[in-house]
Structures are given as structure tokens and as C-alpha cells.
Amino acid sequence: MSEERQVGIVLVSHSGPVALAVAELARGLAAGGVTAPVAAAGGTSAGGLGTSAELIAEAAREVDRGAGVALLADLGSAVLTVKSMLAEEGGLPEGAMLVDAPFVEGAVAALVTASMGGDLATVAAAATDAYGYRKV
Amino acid sequence: MLDTDFFRRWMAATAAAVEREAERLTGLDSAIGDADHGSNMRRGFGTVTAVLESESPATPGAVLVLAGRQLISTVGGASGPLYGTLLRRTGKALGESGEVSQGQLAEAFGAGVAAVARLGGAKAGDKTMLDALLPASRALADSAGAARDAARAGALGTVPLRARKGRASCLGEGSVGHQDPGAASAALLMEALAEAAGENGGDRA
């Protein structure tokens, strides 16, 4: 599995620090080799709380290696913005998809799976499966 | 017939209304949301006005598609993708004609409203912008003035509702008794449409 074909992960949060920290956490837990590309797109372009289509598009371009890009989003406008960008041709790279997953657990599962060379469907399935990790 | 200039006037009138009412929208949002609806909408429509001037789209559809794309990029909250989808889908449904009839606008706007409902997963009575947009869309077949009146009534009608979508839904019964800010801004969009159509009259809700 060449590194060039890995699935990229984009973490879209209302908060810049949350997106960065989750990306860092996922990288740490996925370590043990070269991890797949992951980028944070948190907060607005001005650094406030909210969602920025520009930051999302930039992050997706950054992690795109031609094998697809899995986007995970936290709340309301993050989810809606990604959905509306996917509906607009040219907004996101070819093969970008919004993954239905819990933000933190899903990010870890997605990055571990992408780093092992999983394709987009496998990465998305692993992230969605994280909904099943019950805590009590 | 409604020409490109009509649609530019609609967007400009919306920007002016949002600017004028931004504090009221934020006030409504501070009761049941995160208190940024007015500032988000003001930022979004402010840049819509600027981009329409710099790019000069040539058809009614192109005006709305450009405005919608701009809102998705710049608003920062959920109203960005929702209003962006509304305008973009309406614009796409208008096609590439240089002029459209009132009936074509009503039909295209209906497609835009349906796209908003799909995107947000909300329906009538959920205490969202759709409670103003759905009746406005039906009334638009008659006139822009009728759409404005229907949107105002729909926005006021959200006061007794319990929110079932968005941040306000976390409040449960606590959302009852407050007007939905998204429905209030949707009423401004329809007021601006009536203004662009020269169907002024009635006070500002």
C-alpha cells in the first residue's frame, strides 16, 4: 500500500482547538508507522466558533491523495456545511464523503483504518462502527 | 416578467433588512440559540452585496446561485448552508433565462425550500425557518406581497412551538414562547422580495 493512495481525513468542528486536538489524539493513537493524512478544519476563518467552508475545502485539498477524503463533523452547522458543499460541484475533491460517526471515537477509528491502507468505504464503516462502542 | 435587476434588488433589499434587523435577530437567538444569528446573517449578506457588484452575474438564476454560494462560504453558522442551499437551488431551478415569470419564480422557490427541508431534515411545525418558508412558497404563486404576509404569519406562529431541530431543540419546553430566529430572518427575505417587486405596504414585522 503506497502512502500516495491513502484516504485522507478531515475533522470539522465548531472549535479550532477541538479539531486540532482530536487530530492530534487520533495521530497519537494511530501511531506505529506512517499515519494517513489528517487535517483539522475547526471554527471560522476569523478564529471564532462556527464553521468555515474555506477551511474545510483547504483541509480536504491538503489531505487528498486521490483515494478519497472522509469528513467527520461535530454539530449542526458543521454537518450542514459539509453536506451543502458536497451538493455543489467543485466544492470538495472527487471522492469526498461525509461520514456518519461520533467525532472523537470516529476520528480515531477512521485514521487507524486509513493508515492501515483501508479504502474509503472501509474507513467510513470503521468510523460509523464507533457508534457501537457503548460505555456503560 | 422578472429580470436580473429584480433579483439584484431582492438581494440588496435582503442585505439592508438584515442589517437593519440584525440586533433583533440576535436577540431572538440569544433566547433559544447561541446569539449569533444577526451577526452571521449580516456578515453573509454583506458579502453577497459585494460579490454581486464585483462579479455582475448576467441572469436571475446566476444571481441567486452566486449569492447562495457566498452565504455557504461566509456565514459560519447553520443559516449559511441553509440559506445558501435555498438560494442556490432556487437559482439552479430558474435555469439560464434572462427573465422569468412570477410562476417560474414560485416553482423554483418551491424547489429551493424543498432542498432546505432535505438538508436540515426538518418539517413544518419543528420551529425552524421552514415554518415561514413553506407558507411563503405556497403564497408566492399569487404574489410577492402574499408571500411576505404568509412568511410573517408563519414566523409569528413559531412562538408557541417547541423546537425539534437545531440548538434550540436541546431546550425542550424551554424553547416555547420564543419566536424562531431563522423563521424571523426568512420573513425578512420575503419582505425584501415584496419590496423588490414594488409591493410595499404593511408595517415591518
Automatic annotation (TrEMBL), chain A:
GO terms for molecular function: phosphoenolpyruvate-glycerone phosphotransferase activity. Residues 6-136 form the PTS EIIA type-4 domain. PROSITE patterns: PTS_EIIA_TYPE_4. Keywords: Transferase. It comes from the Bacteria. It holds the Pfam family EIIA-man. InterPro entries: DhaM, PTS_EIIA_man-typ, PTS_EIIA_man-typ_sf. One of its GO terms (cellular component) is membrane. GO terms for biological process: glycerol catabolic process; phosphoenolpyruvate-dependent sugar phosphotransferase system. This is PTS fructose transporter subunit IIA. The lineage of its organism: Bacteria, Bacillati, Actinomycetota, Actinomycetes, Kitasatosporales.
TrEMBL record, chain B:
GO terms for molecular function: glycerone kinase activity. One of its GO terms (cellular component) is cytosol. SMART domains: Dak2. One of its GO terms (biological process) is glycerol catabolic process. PROSITE patterns: DHAL. The keyword ATP-binding does not apply. NCBIfam families: dha_L_ycgS (TIGR02365). This is Dihydroxyacetone kinase subunit L. The gene is dhaL.
